[in-house]
Predict the 3D structure of the following.
Amino acid sequence: MAAQRNDDSFPTLWDELQWRGLVHVSTDAEALSTLLEGEPFTYYCGFDPTAPSLHLGNLVQLLLLRRIQLKGHKPLGLVGGSTGLIGDPRPTAERTLNSRDTVAEWVARLQDQVSRFLSSDGENAVRLVNNLDWTAPLSAIDFLREIGKHFRVGTMLKKDAVAARLNSDEGISYTEFSYQILQGYDFLELFRSYDCVLQSGGSDQWGNLTSGTDLIRKVEGKSAHAIGTPLITNADGTKFGKSEGNAIWLNAEMCSPYAFYQFWVNQADADVIDRLKVFTFLTRAEIESYAAQVAEEPFKRAAQKRLALEVTTLVHGAAATQGAIDASEALFGRGDLTALDEASLRGAVAELPQAPGATGAPVAQLMVDAGLVKSLGEARRAIAQGGVYVNNVAVEADDRVLAPTDLLHGAVAVLRRGKKTLAGVVVAE
């Protein structure tokens, strides 16, 4: 895995961030470049606990925070215990409000995740903050008098998410309308308490980011900065980080290391170099070398394999990544399924079509149940042709049944038809 360091082939960190495609919009670029090259300063990004895990969009922010920390600056990881009770406005519909207990639990989970991507050592160690600490004591009257008076409704109505909701059938509640005021107040509070002068976030949050810089200017008469990262999309314009409608989570229980690894290794040739720039610490020279390999030998998928190795190791660690690689090889007959640890095996089988099974069940029927064939006759013909395997061992008789010794870790078997068509058999515990 590549060492976590900034690439010294760039004149400045700002130049590297731009080359990597991490800057879509910002406050004054020249001032930001100077700031990044200067004395250590405090900066932050906020993560709202609207789910029990962070996802790939959040990983973009975490890696930006880490790159700036590597420059010697001081990160704050804000997990929004108060803003998470409200939720930032989505373009289409009102969020369902979660209970206070649920939000508190998710705050703890997200704080743990944030802390794993940023260094906790040295003079610029990450500090975790929760905006509930300064909003909970604030009365509604104080909030309106001290903070609300600095916001103009006309300006708030122009924010992209608010405008989209106003033009929808759903409309927008005052609760979600007030979100940008709360986020602006966060920046002001961190500016006052930590001398925090930079906030980063996704470009779709730009209105919320600038609500903070505007508030600091109005209340304190000073300047602060913001960086909006691009929303990552695929070359075909589809939203990145979605798999059959589900986000790619950073929590191993919500997205197994195997599924996570497969997501990255299956990136399209047109996308993989941009992914290496954003999600890895490979140098410009290394990435340009992979770009040449994609152009000249795309069938080797060297760039995708390196991307999957780097990001899965970053998120899940070296052992889980090796387990995912071993499982990928073993499923297709290039490794030993029996040598896989249970977590890696179950993570891999969870991504396959599945059939419930039990010892004594005919393999031919399990093939039908798993969708590998359409009928028992087709299953028997496939077996006769020598193209059916249980745990990579060829099935030689069409009356073969699932034996107790076929159950890996006592509960799972892998069916394969031909070289690439797979299914899992899971025995109820």
Q: What stands out?
A: The CA atoms of residues 8 and 336 lie 42 Å apart. The chain has a mean pLDDT of 93.
